Amino acid sequence: MAPTSAQVAVLVGTALDPYRLSRILPEGVEVYTLWGEMAYQLGGFQGHQLVAEVDAGGAAPGANSLVELFRKVGPCVILIDELVAFIRNIKGARGKPRAGDFNSNLTFIQNLTEAVKRVPTALLVASIVVVWIKVKNKQRERTKSCYPVTVHGLFKLNRHNKIVHNTKIILNRILL
What we know:
The protein is an alpha/beta fold. Helix content is 39%, strand content 26%. The protein has helices at residues 34-49, 52-57, 63-73, 83-91, 102-118, 167-175, and strands at 7-12, 23-24, 30-31, 76-81, 122-136, 139-149, 155-156, 163-164. Helix 1 (34-49) crosses helix 3 and helix 3 packs across helix 5 (102-118). The longest helix has 17 residues, at 102-118.
């Protein structure tokens, strides 16, 4: 039987500031990271508690913790928009942003795709803007395309529909 409802988390990279907290929960807990915000939106205070320590420290939660979260909240949909804008903002930051550093955010995306793959009632939809650099007579020309990320972490990387499984490699290529 198909679920009749689902918990939803919407993360918009251009709305989040890597140096400021995302929100203060009614219980007084501060939320800093994409994963802290996602956990709170899906499961409220109890959902956030599953990632509270890594949220406060800026370290990415492991896939097992995310699986636990998804199973606890039941059917869920995670929508991520402007992910590359958020990651680029962190990559250029000085010091360690409260939202976690570049590597911890890449690790989170990798762990998120792995966790979603393991929980049949979890769905991930994210937009990734790909910047193509064409070289013409030693001049660089930039063009943009937007590709959706599939549920299992597969990304359309190029116009030839080459599918790549490694999130870190893909985001590093996008951010170069």
